[in-house]
Amino acid sequence: MLQKQPIDISFAKGLDTKTDPWRVSVGNFLSLQNSIFTKAGQLQKRNGFSTLTTVADSSASYLSTFNGGLTAIGNSLSSYSPGSQTWVSKGTMTPLDLNSFSIVRNNFNQQYADSAVSSNGLICTVYTENNNGTLSYKYIIEDQATEQVVVLPTLIAGSGTTTYAPRVFYVGFYFIIVFDDLIGATNHLQFIAISQNTPNSPTAAADISTVYSGASTGTFDGVVYNGTLYLVYNCSGTTIQASYINSSLAVSAAISYSGNSCTNINVTIDITNATPRIWATWIAPSTGQIRALAFSPALSTIVFPTTIVSSSSALNVASTAQNGLLTTYYEVNNNYSYDAGIPTHYIGTATLTESGTATVLPTLVRSVGLASKAFLYNGVSYFFALYNSTYQPTYFLINGSGQVAAKFAYQNASSAYYVTGLPTVTVNGSTIYVPYLYKDLIQAVNKDTNVTAGTQTAGIYSQTGVYLAQMTFGASALCSSETGGTLNIGGGFVTSYDGIAPVEQNFFLYPDNVEKTATATTGGSLGAQKYYYQVTYEWIDNQGNINRSAPSIPILVDLSASGTSTNTVTLAIPTLRLTYRISNPVKIVIYRWSDRQQIYYQVTSITAPLLNSTTVDSVSYTDTASDATILGNNILYTTGGVLENISPPATSIMALFNNRLWLVDSEDRNLLWYSKQVIEAVPVEMSDLLTVYVAPTTASQTTMGPITALSAMDDKLIIFKKSAIYYINGIGPDNTGANSQYSDPIFITSTVGTINPASIVFTPQGLMFQSQKGIWVLGRDLSTNYVGAPVEAYNSYPVLSAVNIPDQNQVRFSLSNGVVLMFDYFFMQWGTFTGIPGVSNVIFQGLHTFINSYGNILQETPGSYLDGTNPVLMQFTTSWINLAGIQGYQRAYFFYLIGQYYTPHKINLSIAYDYNSSPEQSDLITPDNFSTAYGVDSPFGQGSPYGGNPQLEQWRVFLARQRCQSFQINFQEIYDGTYSVPAGKGLTLSGLNLIVALKKGWRPIAAANTVG
Fold this sequence. Notes:
This protein has one helix and 81 strands. By secondary structure, the chain is an all-beta fold. The strands form 20 sheets. Strands 45, 46, 47, 49, 50 and 51 form a six-stranded antiparallel β-sheet that branches. Strands 1, 75, 78, 79 and 81 form a five-stranded antiparallel β-sheet that branches. Strands 2-74-80-76-77 form a five-stranded antiparallel β-sheet, with no helix packed on it. It is globular, with a radius of gyration of 35 Å.
């Protein structure tokens, strides 16, 4: 007779997906949902999450906190008011991630570029190269993923000589390069096609038009729709033609519009109508008018050539079209009135309806020129623009409202406005690509201006190469850190939020090209001596922090020969036209140094400041103050060698360490920037002299790639790469940049790293993070441990957000599949939560708070067991219980289930046998512990059981198949809504007690499964 014996199975263990399911230890679970380990050996239901509010901005998908308040970010930044339970929009945002890489850099000067991106990730770039005055026209093909060159720089081959800037388009599976070819004395518009599958074998040049009339300002353009390239181009005899090239590389017959000629032509498409419209916008060279036309894909005219702007000095046009409306952005040269040698352009806007109604709108944005064609993303128009100045040429991504969405190539953009054609922006889902010119060589030279006299003038030579900017829209690029009294938010530029409005961190630009416009010998109190002036932009945020730009280049005013002490000086100062600081305008502050007073003291009034205006290019200020009257005023903050403040670069990675804000430069992801030390009443102040370069191969034999994440731990800044970890420790420099004690990056390990900064969370044991191998922990002793092995089944799902729960020993990781991984770092056990698919998590009011993909904000509610209106239900699947070994033979009679009853529930128990996961037995358990509150039942005394509900919950379950190799129990709590109370805590479970007997160490196998 078999001897029965009890086997106690404690619930002290957690989930295990790492081990072979047939060998998972008894007591571990193959699935475990919505349970927590508050007490050793007991499973308890997690708290529910109640709907706190819904964000008005449907695009919001990132949560942060500022001054303890809740902040949501999408296409705007919204702040939550708990008192009124409402959201307040604080201003617009454009979440995006910027990346860039080199396309062409060599000993020659590249002057123009256009790119297209194929479906298999190849990038074809056409460009103009200047070799000592000789222009050549080339293309290059690179692999986007590896940045490796697939086709070396190659001359664009026609039968004659290419004379003007080419363009490239992606049609079907081909790159189509369109170019001007001079054959004999006749211009031809031609193309070559390059298959993405055989990129080294271009087709021979073929004609598009033999009556084409070219010009260096760009007289052809095209757009791709539905596998067809539509082209509009200038022809001889004042005619514009349109034709198309289909995916079979056949060229259609052309339609003509006589009496028109064009330069700077731009072609776009409106696909919001049932029949798409191809729009062409151009500048009429004889009149300067901006004109447009539209036709269908079948080349049927919809809008005949129509004047949009009747008179302008436009240099470039870019357009978008949607819902039957063409919007044109045109660039106008608008030299400073006080110095014609310093150009500053502005962008105007005009619209044209299909019925022919043209409207010229107010100036959109000043101080920039067009640097790309315009494009649409989510219904919003964007274009790239160039701020061109001697000291800080910079590119900006600007939306149709004139607001900056991104800044890049600061001080290294092209030194010339685009005149030979605007590059195309490739839109691929949420990612865009655009080529741009970048100063890859800046070198001092001596320019001999008079060989005979032997006099020389010092100069600077700058050579440009071609880069590609890649920008991805979406909140996944957002990061934030609260310090310096503001919330600093990453993206296409670093945003600073002070509780009032999100604005650019520091200033996009400092005041350059300050000019002396007049001096006088009467009316002032300036003595006969030399004076130097420097100007800053300054602004006080809502926290009282004074934000100061870098000072302008000092300008000398020499009055030493004036012979009087009654001089005045009038300065013209460029305004800050690119800024989010409109309602609370920026101050323009002037500082003066003199021979007799050799400190820069503030000249402008504190009580009546000189204010910035974005609607004018410059403001004038007349200085009449003597040295004595400004003595004791504010001094320029850079006095004594303090580093000047520079706007930080775009970033999607930031952290706080050593009372400083650290970030990774999106344009060079091996470069760390860090701020000056943040102290009370001082904002975050960055400098391009406070950087650390982390080489991709530091302390390793192979490249570890760029920096992917940052986090502080104790006295160290932890630097993550894809498969390596480094750290920096020490004390940083003072505000002059001196006395830095920061270490070089110190290598920790090449075993693991991360590409997911959102997964990093601090615990008492160290930093937990998701690597390509799963969730690991970097211990405080700098050891690494694969703590996430039990939940390895979830490794393929990116962590969207991670939080450490303040009042529990838990870390929670929200995954892209909607599951939340819960790790209890006291018991070192894992479980999963379902029903709370958060895309971004924070701790708000001390509670776990998350936003879902619908913009709903839910917050953990202790004592409640509802997720919104859905009940929280416990579920688990035990390991395969095989007490006699994996193929042993056992007799399992029954098992006991013991726990505590709290609120009404039902239990569905299903049992599977012999490693077949399909259950053979299912039992529904309905506890009768529930009774109504004493005295409430009617008639009195009918409540069952009388006198209340005992907490003990205990069940015995007989197994339908007692003789087996193994069995597995699936426990599922059920709440079917049949009770008079809402779903509640249900029950807790303390374990299983199995009553079994072992028969033999093996089980008989059928003859059909026997060999040998």
